[in-house]
Write a structure and sequence with these properties.
Blueprint: E1 2-7, H1 20-28, E2 32-37, E3 50-51, E4 61-62, H2 64-74, E5 82-93, H3 96-102, E6 107-111, H4 120-125, E7 129-132, H5 141-153, E8 191-192, E9 195-196, H6 206-224
Parallel strand pairs: 1-2, 1-6, 5-6, 5-7
Antiparallel strand pairs: 3-4, 8-9
The chain binds S-adenosyl-L-homocysteine.
S-adenosyl-L-homocysteine is lined by residues 87-90, 112-114, 116-118, 132-134, 136-138, 140-141, 144, 182.
């Protein structure tokens, strides 16, 4: 199986896969891990990967263009045995069922967010889905990608010494946290490949933006993580 990782910190992965099971799996050819530097897909001299969020707010977001260009170059066409996942605190919780499902793929692309996150169009139009490793916020998707690769790789044939040893390991239940997800965020350009940023974020009306964000956050939480909302919350 081939794992692709898209990151602004390729050196991060020098350590995690150079020990034990993963190291041997790579040496035997059962697993191949390709680390891609997001900055290789930036057209400007400064290799810019981030920009400020529309509508104001803290921090920076990863821009859509380099992520789309990179992912489309890594997977030039969609295929059933390839999957593109965005590591994100908003996603479906990664568990042993998901690991088993991914172990059936030929190639998996893991996109690592950084800063305050990633322009929402990546989740909407580039990734097949968003994947979280737990109800907590990490500084970047790199650790999460390493967790996913580790858990999936050890399920592949020939990776563990004893072929049946993975079958008897514990099955982890998905946890149940509480709270509301971050709202969808967008950075420049205001229109990318025909997908427009919600008009209200360009309005400069802070009260409207605040209300929109709360609604969008609730809507997204209801849609992606209804278990976090045991009762209906009114604005
Ligand atoms: N503002 C966002 C957090 C951004 S953290 C929010 O409140 O939801 C920066 C990056 O770290 C994210 O884009 C994502 O790629 C990664 N990340 C953070 N927590 C994660 C988790 N629980 N699982 C997987 N990736 C995570």
């Amino acid at each position: 199986m081939i794992f692709h990782v898209l990151t602004i910190f390729p050196e991060f992965f020098r350590g995690p896969f150079e020990h034990g099971v993963l190291q041997r799996a790579r040496q035997s050819g059962a697993v191949e891990i390709r680390i891609h530097n997001l900055r290789d897909w930036t057209p400007d001299r400064h290799k810019t990967v981030d920009d400020r969020p529309f509508g104001g707010g803290e921090g920076m977001l990863l821009k859509p263009e380099p992520l789309f260009l990179a992912a489309e170059s890594i997977f030039p066409e969609r295929r059933a045995d390839r999957r593109t996942l965005l590591l994100s605190a908003h996603g479906r919780l990664f568990d042993q069922n998901a690991a088993n499902e991914f172990a059936g793929l030929r190639e998996l692309l893991l996109i690592c967010g950084r800063y305050e996150g990633v322009d929402e169009r990546v989740a909407e139009h580039l990734a097949d889905s968003e994947l979280s490793i737990g109800n907590y916020v990490l500084s970047g998707g790199e650790l999460a990608a390493a967790v996913v690769i580790d858990a999936v790789a050890r399920l592949l044939p020939g990776v563990l010494g004893n072929a049946s040893s993975a079958a008897f390991e514990s099955f982890q239940q998905a946890g149940h946290g509480a709270g509301v997800l971050d709202c969808p965020q967008y950075t420049r350009p205001a229109e990318f490949r025909g997908w427009k940023v919600p008009e209200v974020l360009l309005s400069g009306n802070h009260e409207e933006i605040r209300r929109w964000r709360r609604q969008a956050a609730l809507e997204k939480t209801r849609r992606l993580r209804p278990d976090l909302l045991p009762f209906k919350i009114e604005d």
